[in-house]
Amino acid sequence: MTGEVLRVVVADDEAMVRAGLRLLIDGEADLEVVGEAVDGEDAVRVARDQRPDVVLMDVRMPRLNGLDAAREVLAQVPGTRVVILTTFDEDTVVDEALRRGVAGFLLKSSPPEEMLDAVRRASAGQGVIDPSVVPGVIARIGRSPSRTPAPALDMLTPRETDVLRLVGLGLSNAEIAAELYLGETTVKTHLGRVLDKLGLRDRPRAIAYAHRSGLLDDEPRA
């Protein structure tokens, strides 16, 4: 986060979508649209020029798709977070987005307040995944025959393990705090230690790690 007002770039090839997002975002006192991009290559250029806190990135765009553009933005503009905002929830799109290291994945059908919250959470390093796609991610990992518990989990305290498990289930810091009867700041501290110990950059990667490690094996599948 670069200041009190979060700087946002909107990347979408549809002018009406960009206009709607700009209207929504600029209506918030703590958010500001500082640039728009009409395709993936444009998104990389605008992000490089503006160095925003967050880029809202569509997937299906000309010249360079949003997933490849996200990878370039993350490589060329350190500190900028990318949130995928798309109408497509295909398994391959979701999984590839997470592999690219995005801070969030939301569907355009999400309520406006969820999108605004995702921008704020992404900038704060929390990340967000649309609740509608989480069951699919868990189910696909559940079908993987090669998943085994990761020895690195032994480095975590019991409370840190609890936090990682709930992060893996898609809960926010506030929800985890309520579940574990902790303060939200304490949850954030535990998660920061989890990320440091496991060498993970952000919350989406922690979610993916929780799934791959086998930590969620005993959780009910969707």
From TrEMBL:
<dbReference type="InterPro" id="IPR001789">
    <property type="entry name" value="Sig_transdc_resp-reg_receiver"/>
</dbReference>
<dbReference type="InterPro" id="IPR000792">
    <property type="entry name" value="Tscrpt_reg_LuxR_C"/>
</dbReference>
<keyword id="KW-0238">DNA-binding</keyword>
<protein>
    <submittedName>
        <fullName>DNA-binding NarL/FixJ family response regulator</fullName>
    </submittedName>
</protein>
<feature type="domain" description="HTH luxR-type">
    <location>
        <begin position="149"/>
        <end position="214"/>
    </location>
</feature>
<feature type="modified residue" description="4-aspartylphosphate">
    <location>
        <position position="58"/>
    </location>
</feature>
<dbReference type="GO" id="GO:0003677">
    <property type="term" value="F:DNA binding"/>
</dbReference>
<keyword id="KW-0597">Phosphoprotein</keyword>
<dbReference type="Pfam" id="PF00072">
    <property type="entry name" value="Response_reg"/>
</dbReference>
<dbReference type="GO" id="GO:0006355">
    <property type="term" value="P:regulation of DNA-templated transcription"/>
</dbReference>
<dbReference type="InterPro" id="IPR039420">
    <property type="entry name" value="WalR-like"/>
</dbReference>
<feature type="domain" description="Response regulatory">
    <location>
        <begin position="7"/>
        <end position="123"/>
    </location>
</feature>
<dbReference type="GO" id="GO:0000160">
    <property type="term" value="P:phosphorelay signal transduction system"/>
</dbReference>
<keyword id="KW-0804">Transcription</keyword>
<keyword id="KW-0805">Transcription regulation</keyword>
<dbReference type="InterPro" id="IPR011006">
    <property type="entry name" value="CheY-like_superfamily"/>
</dbReference>
<dbReference type="Pfam" id="PF00196">
    <property type="entry name" value="GerE"/>
</dbReference>
<dbReference type="InterPro" id="IPR016032">
    <property type="entry name" value="Sig_transdc_resp-reg_C-effctor"/>
</dbReference>
<dbReference type="InterPro" id="IPR058245">
    <property type="entry name" value="NreC/VraR/RcsB-like_REC"/>
</dbReference>
